[in-house]
Task: inverse folding
Protein backbone atom coordinates (compact mmCIF):
# COMPACT_ATOMS: atom_id res chain seq x y z
CA UNK A 1 0.00 0.00 0.00
CA UNK A 2 1.17 3.55 -0.62
CA UNK A 3 2.66 5.35 2.35
CA UNK A 4 2.07 8.83 3.70
CA UNK A 5 2.96 11.43 1.09
CA UNK A 6 4.23 14.91 1.88
CA UNK A 7 5.25 17.86 -0.23
CA UNK A 8 7.38 19.75 -0.65
CA UNK A 9 10.34 17.87 0.79
CA UNK A 10 12.37 21.03 1.32
CA UNK A 11 11.45 24.69 1.61
CA UNK A 12 13.55 27.77 2.27
CA UNK A 13 11.84 31.05 3.05
CA UNK A 14 12.63 34.34 4.71
CA UNK A 15 11.15 35.30 8.03
CA UNK A 16 7.71 36.89 7.88
CA UNK A 17 6.88 34.99 4.69
CA UNK A 18 4.16 32.37 4.59
CA UNK A 19 4.47 28.69 3.72
CA UNK A 20 2.17 25.71 3.32
CA UNK A 21 2.78 22.00 3.57
CA UNK A 22 0.63 19.24 2.17
CA UNK A 23 0.01 15.72 3.43
CA UNK A 24 -1.85 12.77 1.94
CA UNK A 25 -2.33 9.98 4.52
CA UNK A 26 -2.61 6.28 3.91
CA UNK A 27 -5.96 5.45 2.37
CA UNK A 28 -8.55 4.66 5.03
CA UNK A 29 -6.62 6.15 7.93
CA UNK A 30 -9.02 8.32 9.87
CA UNK A 31 -6.48 9.91 12.19
CA UNK A 32 -3.91 12.40 10.90
CA UNK A 33 -1.14 14.09 12.87
CA UNK A 34 1.20 17.00 12.22
CA UNK A 35 4.44 17.04 14.18
CA UNK A 36 7.22 19.58 14.43
CA UNK A 37 10.70 18.08 14.84
CA UNK A 38 13.39 20.58 15.74
CA UNK A 39 16.95 19.44 15.18
CA UNK A 40 18.10 17.23 18.03
CA UNK A 41 14.63 16.77 19.49
CA UNK A 42 11.82 14.30 19.25
CA UNK A 43 8.65 15.03 17.29
CA UNK A 44 6.23 17.38 19.01
CA UNK A 45 2.55 17.08 18.18
CA UNK A 46 1.08 20.23 16.66
CA UNK A 47 -2.37 19.03 15.74
CA UNK A 48 -4.33 15.78 15.53
CA UNK A 49 -7.38 15.23 13.33
CA UNK A 50 -9.96 12.51 13.55
CA UNK A 51 -11.55 12.47 10.09
CA UNK A 52 -11.96 16.22 9.48
CA UNK A 53 -12.41 17.22 13.11
CA UNK A 54 -9.67 18.48 15.41
CA UNK A 55 -8.94 16.21 18.38
CA UNK A 56 -5.94 18.01 19.86
CA UNK A 57 -4.38 21.32 18.88
CA UNK A 58 -3.17 22.35 22.31
CA UNK A 59 0.43 22.84 21.15
CA UNK A 60 -0.34 24.60 17.89
CA UNK A 61 0.77 28.27 17.91
CA UNK A 62 -2.55 29.48 16.67
CA UNK A 63 -1.43 33.05 16.10
CA UNK A 64 0.69 31.90 13.16
CA UNK A 65 -0.06 28.24 12.46
CA UNK A 66 -3.22 26.85 10.94
CA UNK A 67 -4.21 23.45 9.63
CA UNK A 68 -7.16 21.97 7.89
CA UNK A 69 -8.28 18.58 6.71
CA UNK A 70 -11.07 19.01 4.24
CA UNK A 71 -13.17 15.93 3.45
CA UNK A 72 -11.22 13.94 6.03
CA UNK A 73 -8.41 12.99 3.67
CA UNK A 74 -5.63 15.41 2.64
CA UNK A 75 -4.38 18.03 5.03
CA UNK A 76 -2.48 21.30 4.79
CA UNK A 77 -0.44 23.03 7.46
CA UNK A 78 0.25 26.73 7.05
CA UNK A 79 2.61 29.11 8.79
CA UNK A 80 1.98 32.83 8.41
CA UNK A 81 4.17 34.70 9.15
CA UNK A 82 7.17 32.45 9.69
CA UNK A 83 9.77 33.06 12.38
CA UNK A 84 13.36 31.88 12.59
CA UNK A 85 12.42 29.41 15.32
CA UNK A 86 10.02 27.66 12.95
CA UNK A 87 12.98 26.07 11.18
CA UNK A 88 12.33 22.35 11.64
CA UNK A 89 11.14 19.20 9.93
CA UNK A 90 7.37 18.97 9.74
CA UNK A 91 6.19 15.39 9.85
CA UNK A 92 2.78 14.11 8.90
CA UNK A 93 1.57 10.77 10.21
CA UNK A 94 -1.61 8.77 10.02
CA UNK A 95 -3.15 5.89 11.90
CA UNK A 96 -6.20 3.68 11.83
CA UNK A 97 -7.85 3.43 15.25
CA UNK A 98 -8.28 -0.15 16.27
CA UNK A 99 -5.58 -1.41 13.95
CA UNK A 100 -2.07 -1.72 15.28
CA UNK A 101 -3.18 -0.05 18.48
CA UNK A 102 -2.53 3.44 17.20
CA UNK A 103 0.74 2.68 15.47
CA UNK A 104 1.52 5.78 13.45
CA UNK A 105 2.79 5.73 9.89
CA UNK A 106 5.01 8.68 9.05
CA UNK A 107 5.72 10.52 5.85
CA UNK A 108 9.26 11.61 4.89
CA UNK A 109 8.73 15.11 6.27
CA UNK A 110 9.21 18.64 4.96
CA UNK A 111 12.40 20.36 6.03
CA UNK A 112 11.73 24.08 6.51
CA UNK A 113 14.53 26.59 6.76
CA UNK A 114 13.60 30.14 7.76
CA UNK A 115 16.30 32.74 7.01
CA UNK B 1 0.89 13.59 32.71
CA UNK B 2 2.87 11.23 30.57
CA UNK B 3 6.55 11.71 29.80
CA UNK B 4 9.44 9.87 28.20
CA UNK B 5 13.13 10.06 29.05
CA UNK B 6 15.78 8.58 26.83
CA UNK B 7 19.12 8.28 28.59
CA UNK B 8 21.99 9.28 26.34
CA UNK B 9 21.54 11.45 23.28
CA UNK B 10 24.36 9.51 21.56
CA UNK B 11 25.42 5.87 21.85
CA UNK B 12 28.40 4.40 20.03
CA UNK B 13 29.02 0.67 19.65
CA UNK B 14 31.30 -1.49 17.57
CA UNK B 15 29.87 -3.67 14.84
CA UNK B 16 28.85 -6.99 16.39
CA UNK B 17 28.51 -5.56 19.89
CA UNK B 18 25.38 -5.39 22.01
CA UNK B 19 23.10 -2.41 21.45
CA UNK B 20 21.28 -1.02 24.50
CA UNK B 21 19.18 2.11 24.23
CA UNK B 22 17.46 3.21 27.41
CA UNK B 23 13.94 4.55 27.83
CA UNK B 24 12.02 5.40 30.97
CA UNK B 25 8.45 6.62 30.98
CA UNK B 26 5.80 7.93 33.27
CA UNK B 27 2.11 7.45 32.77
CA UNK B 28 -0.89 7.56 35.05
CA UNK B 29 -2.58 4.68 33.25
CA UNK B 30 -1.24 1.49 31.66
CA UNK B 31 0.59 2.76 28.62
CA UNK B 32 1.29 1.60 25.15
CA UNK B 33 5.00 1.90 24.39
CA UNK B 34 6.74 2.17 21.08
CA UNK B 35 10.20 2.34 19.60
CA UNK B 36 10.60 4.09 16.26
CA UNK B 37 13.71 4.42 14.09
CA UNK B 38 14.52 7.37 11.85
CA UNK B 39 17.09 7.18 9.08
CA UNK B 40 18.52 10.40 7.62
CA UNK B 41 16.00 12.43 5.64
CA UNK B 42 13.22 9.94 6.30
CA UNK B 43 10.19 9.75 8.52
CA UNK B 44 9.90 7.54 11.56
CA UNK B 45 9.37 3.82 11.16
CA UNK B 46 7.95 1.53 13.83
CA UNK B 47 10.43 -0.98 15.26
CA UNK B 48 8.22 -2.56 17.89
CA UNK B 49 5.40 -1.89 20.32
CA UNK B 50 4.21 -3.01 23.74
CA UNK B 51 0.47 -3.38 24.10
CA UNK B 52 0.04 -5.13 27.48
CA UNK B 53 0.55 -8.64 26.15
CA UNK B 54 4.00 -10.22 26.48
CA UNK B 55 6.49 -8.06 28.35
CA UNK B 56 9.32 -9.05 26.00
CA UNK B 57 8.55 -7.65 22.61
CA UNK B 58 10.33 -8.60 19.43
CA UNK B 59 10.52 -6.19 16.54
CA UNK B 60 12.03 -5.85 13.12
CA UNK B 61 15.72 -6.07 12.26
CA UNK B 62 16.53 -8.20 15.32
CA UNK B 63 15.55 -5.60 17.92
CA UNK B 64 13.64 -6.37 21.06
CA UNK B 65 12.51 -4.51 24.15
CA UNK B 66 11.38 -5.51 27.61
CA UNK B 67 8.61 -3.76 29.50
CA UNK B 68 9.44 -3.52 33.21
CA UNK B 69 6.60 -1.94 35.11
CA UNK B 70 8.47 -1.81 38.43
CA UNK B 71 11.25 0.17 36.78
CA UNK B 72 8.97 2.10 34.38
CA UNK B 73 11.42 1.18 31.66
CA UNK B 74 11.25 -0.05 28.09
CA UNK B 75 14.86 -0.44 26.99
CA UNK B 76 15.69 -1.44 23.42
CA UNK B 77 18.32 -4.08 22.74
CA UNK B 78 19.93 -5.92 19.85
CA UNK B 79 22.50 -8.67 20.45
CA UNK B 80 24.79 -7.76 17.57
CA UNK B 81 24.99 -4.33 15.95
CA UNK B 82 25.20 -3.94 12.21
CA UNK B 83 26.41 -0.93 10.32
CA UNK B 84 22.92 -0.47 8.90
CA UNK B 85 21.57 0.07 12.44
CA UNK B 86 23.14 3.53 12.56
CA UNK B 87 20.16 5.86 12.90
CA UNK B 88 18.15 7.85 15.43
CA UNK B 89 15.86 5.94 17.76
CA UNK B 90 12.82 7.34 19.50
CA UNK B 91 10.89 5.89 22.40
CA UNK B 92 7.24 6.92 22.63
CA UNK B 93 4.42 6.45 25.12
CA UNK B 94 0.72 6.54 24.34
CA UNK B 95 -2.08 6.52 26.81
CA UNK B 96 -5.75 7.27 26.86
CA UNK B 97 -6.57 10.72 28.11
CA UNK B 98 -9.62 12.93 28.00
CA UNK B 99 -8.99 13.82 24.39
CA UNK B 100 -8.31 10.29 23.23
CA UNK B 101 -4.97 8.61 22.75
CA UNK B 102 -2.04 10.96 23.08
CA UNK B 103 1.52 10.05 22.11
CA UNK B 104 4.65 11.66 23.55
CA UNK B 105 8.06 11.07 21.99
CA UNK B 106 11.40 11.08 23.73
CA UNK B 107 14.22 13.33 22.56
CA UNK B 108 15.87 10.49 20.70
CA UNK B 109 19.15 8.59 20.86
CA UNK B 110 21.50 8.61 17.92
CA UNK B 111 23.23 5.26 17.46
CA UNK B 112 26.67 5.18 15.88
CA UNK B 113 28.13 1.85 14.76
CA UNK B 114 31.90 1.59 14.33
CA UNK B 115 33.48 -0.83 11.93
Result:
Amino acid sequence: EAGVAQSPRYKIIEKRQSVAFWCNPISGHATLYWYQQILGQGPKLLIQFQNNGVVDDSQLPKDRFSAERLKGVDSTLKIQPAKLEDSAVYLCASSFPGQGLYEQFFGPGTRLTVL
Amino acid sequence: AQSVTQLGSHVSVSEGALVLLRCNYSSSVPPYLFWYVQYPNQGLQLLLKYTSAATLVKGINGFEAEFKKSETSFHLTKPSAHMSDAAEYFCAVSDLGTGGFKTIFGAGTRLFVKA
In short: Chain B touches chain A at residues 4, 9, 32, 34, 36, 41-46, 49, 51, 90, 92, 94, 99-103, 105-108 (CB under 8 Å). Residues 76 and 103 of chain B are 18 Å apart (CA to CA). DSSP finds no helices and eleven strands in chain B.
